Amino acid sequence: MSDSEAETGVDVDEWRAEVQHQREQKDEFFADHPQSPIPPEEREAFDGLDYFDPDPDYRVEATVTTHDEPDPVEMETTNGPNVRYLRVVTFDFEASGETQTLAGYRQESDDSRSLFVPFRDKTTGQQTYRGGRYMEFEPNRELEDGDEVVLDFNLAYSPFCAYSETFACPLPPEENWLDVVIPAGERFGE
């Protein structure tokens, strides 16, 4: 068992294969699906998204802090009115040897457990989309204070507005701007 496997409890080879499979499915969607954000006239030339190599070091253990009375957060968008989210949890984790914090949000009308985790890092605007990237976190139960979860930055992706200006995408609020490099997930050439 490797150090990474011992820390995260997953078989690294199986995990890499699953990440690769998800990326292939996304590339197929972007190339062929009518709801693809790739403009129709550009789809024939589309040969897949660019990604950082899967790196288990960017599957990080995070400690959860829940917010029983979530604060509203107004997020600017790339093309349109602001959107309102609720800050329902905070994740504390280590990255590049430093403690980092990211908030997880949910829209007021959303009663699912899914959390929206938009962020910027030191790759933003250079190796990744200038508007930031997103992660979706799907806990299998309601999170409680002190829970330990895994955030997998290898699943970070660019919003649809990175590919077409017809989309209005929330921009990560300043509280989710990381002061470290996260070379994981989707890359994006500007």
Key words describing this protein structure:
190 residues; 4-stranded antiparallel β-sheet; alpha+beta; two-stranded antiparallel sheet; 2 helices; single chain
Task: Please specify the SSE layout and strand pairing.
Blueprint: H1 3-8, H2 12-32, E1 59-75, E2 83-95, E3 98-106, E4 115-119, E5 133-137, E6 148-152
Antiparallel strand pairs: 1-2, 1-6, 2-3, 4-5
Protein architecture, described:
Helix content is 14%, strand content 28%. Strands 3-2-1-6 form a 4-stranded antiparallel β-sheet, with no helix packed on it. Strands 4-5 form a two-stranded antiparallel ribbon. The chain is an alpha+beta fold and 190 residues long. It has 2 helices and 6 strands.
Short description:
The protein has helices at 3-8, 12-32, and strands at 59-75, 83-95, 98-106, 115-119, 133-137, 148-152.
Sheet with most strands: strand arrangement: 3-2-1-6
**What is the ordering of alpha helices and beta strands?**
HHEEEEEE
Q: Over the alpha carbons, how many angstroms does the gyration radius reach?
A: 17 Å
Number of strands: 6
Q: Roughly what is the average pLDDT, rounded to an integer?
A: 91
| Span between termini | 39 Å
Give the biggest sheet: 4 strands, antiparallel
Overall geometric form:
globular
Strand content: 25-35%
Output the number of helix runs. Answer: 2
Range of helix content: 10-25%
Low-confidence stretches: 1-7
Q: Structural class, from helix and strand content? A: alpha+beta
